[in-house]
Write a structure and sequence with these properties.
The chain is of the alpha+beta class. The protein has 7 helices and 14 strands. It has helices spanning 11-16, 19-26, 87-90, 117-139, 173-184, 190-194, 211-214; strands spanning 2-7, 30-34, 54-58, 69-73, 79-82, 95-100, 103-109, 143-149, 188-189, 204-205, 217-218, 221-225, 233-238, 250-254. The protein is globular.
Length: 259
């Protein structure tokens, strides 16, 4: 089973660039995208009705052209959920999940902590609500895969300039501490689990400073799995040669699961 996750920074932009053809050729079971930046009527035809895939979107309800997530799936879920049933966190279209018997696949675009203390507090509270959300799924017997733009680099190896960013959102101690908490609950950062010492691998680069050409980046896009899926993990990858957004795709391959 193959899953690819990508913050596309605008579904209309990547569709115009032909990048839907790219991911269809990759043949993932799940293709999860973040930052669709579109309303339902703005999604181009080439991003709909893709043979072999069902698609599901979560749109922001208050701010158009902002945030938004989508999942394309080869497998029909038993249930689709949108958000965390928490009004304070569900208006920006940041989370959706496909629930199968024994497995939940969650696509999430976490808030950025920039914009002042209030927004950082929102991000940290969102983090806590999400951990509670997935823990409740596990209590119900669900294995969990969650992927997307975490908007935080966990360790110094996960960004090119750790010292210069210690006081910047995306690498603040309190943001990183939440990822420590995720790990302490058994969730596995799939890429770092299979590539523990691999350096200079990033998934986001600032476009204004041509950081990608210099590989001055951040690894802030992740695929996590619950510990009961560890034995099924075969590959974890960062497709940093794929151009089209300020982020690149990331993904995993698992042994085939019965869905």
């Amino acid at each position: 089973m193959k899953l690819i996750s990508w913050n596309v920074n605008g579904i209309r932009a990547v569709a115009r660039k032909g990048l839907f053809d790219w991911w269809i050729a990759e043949k993932p079971d799940f293709f999860c995208i973040q930052e669709t930046k579109a309303t339902e009527d703005q999604v181009p035809p080439e991003a709909k009705n893709i043979k072999g895939y069902s698609h599901y979107f979560n749109w922001p309800t208050e701010k158009k052209g902002y945030s938004g997530v989508a999942i394309y799936s080869k497998h029909k879920p038993e249930e689709v959920s949108f958000g965390m049933d928490t009004p304070a966190f569900d208006t920006e279209g940041r989370l959706m999940a496909l629930h199968f018997k024994g497995l939940s696949v969650i696509n999430i675009y976490f808030p950025n902590g920039g914009g002042g203390p209030e927004r950082l507090r929102y991000k940290l509270d969102f983090y806590d609500a999400f951990l509670h959300f997935i823990q409740e799924l596990r209590k119900k017997g669900q294995k969990v895969i969650f992927c997307g733009d975490i908007n935080t680099a966990h360790e110094e190896i996960d960004l090119a300039r750790p010292k210069e960013n210690e006081k910047n959102t995306g690498f603040l101690p309190e943001e990183r501490a939440w990822l420590d908490q995720v790990a302490s609950n058994g969730y596995i950062d799939t890429f770092r689990f299979l590539h523990p010492g691999k350096k200079d691998i990033y998934s986001y680069w600032d476009m204004k400073t041509a950081a990608r050409e210099r590989n001055v980046g951040w690894r802030i896009d992740y695929v996590y799995i619950s510990p009961d899926l560890q034995k099924d993990l075969k590959k974890a990858f960062v497709l940093d040669a794929v151009i089209g957004s300020d982020h690149c795709p990331v993904g995993i391959e698992l042994s085939d699961l019965k869905l």
